[in-house]
Amino acid sequence: MLVLAIYALCTVSFVVLAGDRLDRHTMNDHFAVQAEVWREGRWYLTEEDIVGRQRRGELDMHNDWAVARHVDPATGKTEVRYFNSFPVFPAVLMYPFVAAAGSAVVFRDALFVVAIAGVGPALLFLALEKLRRDGRNPRSMLANAGLASLFALGTVYFFTAVQGSVWFAAHVVGVGLTCGYILASVSSARLLWCLVAGALVGADFHTRTPTLLGVALFAYESARASLRAPVRADGTLWERAGDAWAKLEKPKLLTRWTFFAAPILVAIWVTFRINQARFGDAWEFGHTLLNVAWMDRVRRWGLFSYHYLSRNLTCAFTLLPILNPAKHPAGVGRVQFSAMGLALWVTTPLYLWLLWPKVKGALHWALWLTVLPIAALDLTYQNSGWLQFGYRFSNDFAPYLFVLLALGGRPFGGLFRLAAAFSVAINYFGAVSFQRAGFERYYFIQTYTAPTFDGTPSLQASTYPPD
After folding, report:
1. Could you give the CA distance from residue 171 to residue 113 in angstroms, rounded to a whole number?
2. What does each C-alpha distance from 461 to 427, 441, 465 come to in angstroms?
3. Which three-class secondary structure state does DSSP give residue 448?
4. What is the pLDDT of residue 236?
5. Is the pLDDT score of 447 beyond 80?
6. Hey, what's the torsion of the CAs at 324, 329, 332, 336, to 10 degrees?
7. What is the CA radius of gyration of the chain?
8. Cβ-Cβ contacts under 8 Å for 66 (sequence gap 6 or more)
């Protein structure tokens, strides 16, 4: 019953905060449009079609569409085509509903996103409960329910879940898949769950690409499930590793990995086929063709680069609320938030408890080895998440952090409860205010033109050093 209560709590909260966004489709409903054009046997919108939709107020044609020119080999005629460059699994989920509605314009994508946004927290609760029943999670059932609810309402997932548009829809679907993967991984003693875990990773790769790197959790859990006897608890790390290797039933582990890897390999193959069908190049994912203002930096440095690390670390870990002077203009709030977002420890101070865990078992390290490669890819990406209330790319790895909070063993005392209350309060404000009419005064958004390293002018965001 608790799992249903968590889903209901999330859904009611998200519906209330989403408000009038649920009344119609969003202006950036790329996934719904993708589903619509699939029905017509295409991957793209023609330039005439997308211009018409923009003119009728049905979508924003200037925001994150991949633009490619296609030359008809028979006639030599050039056609400009607009593609949804985002991984397409959310569009797969929307397809039957868009088909039933008849078009993306009729389909209410924000309502769909809100309806499924409670799935991730509910699955996170089930994963924590599985660990508790196995004797590996010291928290009570109620504490696990509280952690799952705090993930939903006390992190940037809260403001994410009530937006509905393409960027945030991908996060909501991705969180559901990630939490399902955690549950399947900790259940990997059964082969069916190994297959489910791989299928969820494959679907997540088609939703939020960095999550493909989070296989360390399954690697550990499948190895643990393949031991013929418990590993010795004494001795050096090398001695314990040798004992684990001796007790590992290699054929069983190989079988589990085969079940896990097969759907992932299929998902990667499908991605290459999609790229080939759209752009004539298996390695062209579409994001290098986007019609956005920041493409100068992509041409200079690529989609992923060390160049972006310092700025993304700033957005993720050091951005604080802006305190303006007492004599500030009427249209400017006394307190403002950067459009680059707030630091993670500001939006969710609960994460500070991760720094001093009381218990550090093997699963603890496996979870961190899952988080780090995902976070590393996010932090070297050309985009920090702009525009956002908090560092929204943390949704890719935040569920693992909440499992770590549960396993850490620190008491959830008065200070933790105070931090939890603050987390809910500040993220509630983010969900209420972000990109809402009437709240513009609380957000600082500024761009400027500055010379880059080679002296050429380029549009920059205010938090960033010039490219």
Report:
1. 10
2. 24, 18, 8
3. strand
4. 78
5. no
6. 0
7. 23
8. 82, 83, 84, 85, 279, 286, 287, 289, 290, 291
pLDDT in the model for residue 465? 56
Give the residue carrying structure tokens 């958004």: 445
Tokens 């509910």, residue? 122
pTM: 0.94
> pLDDT tens digit string along 216-242?
999 999 999 999 888 887 877 787 888
Residue 193: count of CB within 10 angstroms of its CB: 22
Strands laid side by side in the 78-83 sheet: 44-46, 78-83, 66-71
Tokens of 295: 């493409």
Question: How do the domains of the chain map onto residue ranges?
Answer: 2-24+108-461, 25-107
Task: Estimate the crossing angle of helix 250-279 against helix 191-205, to 10 degrees.
Answer: 20
Q: With CA atoms as reference, report the closest residue to 164 among 57, 21, 36, 54.
A: 21
Give the span between the Cα atoms of 152 and 178, in whole angstroms. Answer: 14
Alpha carbons 119 and 177: distance in angstroms, whole number? 9
* DSSP H helical ranges for 117-249: 119-133, 141-153, 157-161, 166-185, 191-205, 216-225, 237-247
Q: Tokens 């979508």 label which residue?
A: 59
Q: What's the gap between Cα 85 and its chain centre?
A: 16
| 3-state SS class at 461 | strand
Q: Which of 185, 166, 184 is nearest to 85 (CA)?
A: 166
Instruction: State how far the Cα of 216 lies from the Cα of 218, in Å rounded to an integer.
Output: 5
Which phi-psi region, left, alpha or beta, contains residue 433 (left: φ > 0; alpha: ψ -120 to 50)?
Answer: alpha
User: How far is the CA of 135 from the CAs of 138, 232, 357, 467, in angstroms?
Assistant: 7, 17, 18, 51
Among the listed residues 115, 158, 168, 152, the one whose alpha carbon sits nearest the alpha carbon of residue 107: 115
pLDDT digits (tens, 9 = 90+) for 108-121: 999 999 999 999 99
Reported as a single tens digit per residue, the pLDDT across 110-161 is: 999 999 999 999 999 999 999 999 999 999 999 999 999 999 999 999 999 9
Query: Taking residues 29-52, what's their average pLDDT?
Result: 95
Structure tokens at 101: 């509605």
Which residues are CB-contacts of 244 (< 8 A; sequence separation ≥ 6)?
A: 223, 227, 231
- Predicted pLDDT of residue 211: 97
List the one residue out of 102, 99, 107, 92 whose CA is nearest residue 274.
92
Contact 334, 327 (CB under 8 A): no
pLDDT of residue 463: 67
